[in-house]
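Long-time lurker, first post. I've been practising inverse folding by hand and with some scripts of my own, and I keep getting stuck on stretches where the structure tokens seem ambiguous. Below is the full token string for one chain I'm working on. Before anyone asks, I'm not after the true native sequence, just a reasonable design that respects the backbone. If someone could post their per-position residues I'd love to compare against what I wrote down in my notebook.
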């Protein structure tokens, strides 16, 4: 089980939730989907600045942290994000920590 700090951030929890539904995704698509979700769970059309901000945060902070924890595989060169076969039920992992 990952530690709380591995999924403490909203972007990391949303990344897991999105990848539980569809993968592989590239960083740009993942950033667009995260930017479209507000902190309260509502969805909407994100601005270019919101997508850019999410992409930078994912690239430099959140995806490397999730990859280091073993929850995702992240190929920086191609930008592809996937879930390793040995990781079970990402949505349950994200939900466990969402309420804490």
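-- Answer (accepted) --
I ran through it position by position. Result:
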């Amino acid at each position: 089980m990952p530690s709380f700090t591995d999924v403490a951030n909203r972007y990391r929890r949303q990344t897991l939730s999105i990848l539980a539904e569809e993968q592989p995704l590239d960083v740009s698509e993942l950033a667009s989907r995260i930017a479209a979700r507000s902190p309260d769970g509502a969805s909407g059309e994100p601005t270019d600045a919101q997508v850019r901000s999410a992409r930078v945060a994912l690239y430099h902070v959140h995806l490397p942290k999730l990859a280091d924890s073993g929850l995702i595989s992240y190929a920086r060169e191609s930008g592809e994000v996937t879930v390793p076969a040995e990781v079970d039920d990402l949505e349950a992992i994200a939900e466990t920590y969402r309420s804490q």
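A couple of notes from the structure itself: The longest strand covers residues 73-75. The radius of gyration is 12 Å. Happy to go over any region you disagree with.
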